[in-house]
Specification:
17 strands, 38% helix
Amino acid sequence: MSSIAVKKRTHVDASFLNFPCSPLLKQLYANRGICSDHELDNSTKTLLSAKQLKGIDAACALLYDALLSHKKIVVVGDFDADGATSTALSMLAFKALGFIAVDYIVPNRFDYGYGLTPETVDLARAKGAEIIMTVDNGISSNSGVAHAKQLGMQVLVTDHHLPGETLPDADAIVNPNQVGCDFPSKHLAGVGVAFYLMLALRAYLSEKGYFTQQGAPNLACLLDIVALGTVADVVQLDANNRTLVQQGLARIRAGICRPGISALISVAKRNQAQLVASDLGFSLGPRLNAAGRLDEMSYGVELLLCDDPMQANIMANELDALNQSRREIEQGMQQEALATLAGLELDESNIPHAICLFDPQWHQGVIGLVASRIKERYYRPTFVFAKGNEGEIKASARSIPGIHIRDILDLVDKRIPNVILKFGGHAMAAGLSIKASDFNLFRENLITILAEQIDEAILTNVLLSDGQLSAQQINIEQAQELREAGPWGQAFPAPLFDGEFTVLQQRLVGEKHLKMVLSSEGKSVDAIAFNVDLKAWPNPMVKKVFCVYRLDVNEFRGNRTVQLLVELLKVQDKES
């Protein structure tokens, strides 16, 4: 395992902020680069204009023509939570805007692979597609778009992934990351791009006088779906994305959301009125993702489209069962991966610049999760491969801050042409395919390029702490304020604090979690550390510890108390 360093965040003068919140929260915002009160205004009026998206006019014109000509539109989604939410949002928006001839497909990842492949185009054609609209994919689907055009179809690509050197020959492309796009936020999720397209389409139809007998529909009702997909896809929560997520969370907390989202909250045993962004990412997202990982993501889309609360609860419970199966598969694969790495006797001095693992028995739908777990343990970019089709193997890659994994793959592709059969992704996650026989060649060149390109300091895992809290600041009111703030997420991290504590009590709960009662300045507080080293804990000899923790609210049987969620636990003093 890699070592973890703890560094204090630089404290920035926060006196310029007049936002109504505690001095502590003002300081936390300033520490995260907030420069004005405007950046903390999460009202819809602050959302960026869709007009700034390159290709948006062409996309709206294409869809308007489809509406007038009654052309059949088939939405092609991706098989993750972002893809499912993008697909469901598009279907709901089309219906609200008066489109009738609309259908969707989410191709099975195991049979058709990622993106708009020629085979997926054939599926769309079988549904009668005259126009294909991709959501959360398509920017790298040159061959699929070409095949669709050969069959006489029009193609609208909506995506957020980074484009390659050559764009597909689509009739319109909407992607904030394409060259020449002036949209200020480059971090929209696929569902965010789809939402902006629908906002622009509504405005376009209004300008054409389409909504004559009844007013234009209020698309804010889709913000719950936008919030779920945005957080689940772990995109950066810049100011625009924070507004999208905060507005969606507000609707969910008020009970104004899709029955499927309420059902997911229920099976995950979350409090809907107190839901926060991390619940979307760690509780709802995995259950929605389970459909695409082990079965058909169309089931997840149908859950989001479902209008019947009773049926939605049945479907959510089935997804919950799938998610439990996913956990079991993942745990087995993770143990096998860790056993392989343990055999290499790695320590801090010899961990390679990247970790590449392959087992022909591993489940293709779970390799991304295993890559995340290995990356967290060893703090290295991690590639986990599973068996593909006809001598190919497919990988999911997860990276660490400071290493743009898609750019690294581009460098590998240039150094050893034709070894990577296809790849795509963004800074922190990517996917690729290679021939099984090229595994060692790929791994060696990947490690060599990383050694050439990166600063070794990047390979040290650093926890950035916002400093020490006084005993008086560790209270339920402060914890609740921090919970409701943000929203916290990727590139806008939840506050971390550190400090020394006296250990009053310690015991295992759930077989691998350490429940403690700690004391600071004569005041006691509950704390919990998840997945502790069972060889080291519990340890009755330990009397003082150093903790890096989050301040949180624990709800149990209707009681709400302050609790420390411990991310790093170090022994400071033992009884002799």
